[in-house]
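The protein record reproduced below.
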Amino acid sequence: MTDLRTYVASLVGALVLSGCVPAESPAKNDADGAMDVRLIRSATVLVTYTNAARSMKILVDPILADEGAEPPIDYSNDLKNPRIKLPIEKSELMKGVSAVLLTHYHSDHFDMEAERTLPKDILIFCQPYDEAHLREKGFTNLKVVRDVVHWEGLTVSRFRASHHQGATGAPPFGESSSYFLQTRNDDVFFTGDAILDDSLKSSLRATQPKRIVANTGECQFTKENPLLRPGITMTLTAAELKEAARLLPSSKIVAVHMDAINHCPLTKDALRRYVDEEQLNDRILVPNEGESAPHP
């Protein structure tokens, strides 16, 4: 693959790099396309925007189970997932959802309750590596994001990401992806489960997002296992969030993926203390469940 800047430019052109409006969907007013980014729980985020006077809702990485209803992630501890409740009723959360964005098919991003309860014909944006698995589960309305897709006034661009140090994409971790969502007047970058290696740095530099929804929690295994040495982090660390803030001085970082999954030891309270100590309160936001991230 050529360098990522050239790659992005060839795929997304001026749209991604300069924020230009797609020719097929001219802007109607300044409010059209502004995105509300609301943390639901863990990496589950609800993105709401207006397209041609219609409200569009995209549910990212739905974890829908009741507190403690699903088994723990292996090789960590015996705490059942999710460890906290949803901030709103499930029926209220799902009301009017237009589509799902699945960053990658792991049980802490698409749980058994989501598999059971989501309509099988709901539109799901997914990475190529998860298409077969989703179809095996009966989902029929898939929009596979290989590079970039356009839908309802939204541009979705995918970037390959490393789930852990030295990740090769081989099982059991599969491929992980980051996503850049852009409307005519707004944008947000979802890191997915990624570490801050050269791949993620290049993706962030290329897109220069207004907001970065960053999966943290410092997820890791604590027990010996055949998959990954204990202590190797599989999501962004507090120190990596600090580095990302330095790398993109104009971006707001919205830290998520904490308190709900058993193998993620970094808590919201601990991260807030770190952010305060490092004087990063104006750069790194740590919302509670149910809260929306303000626009920068």
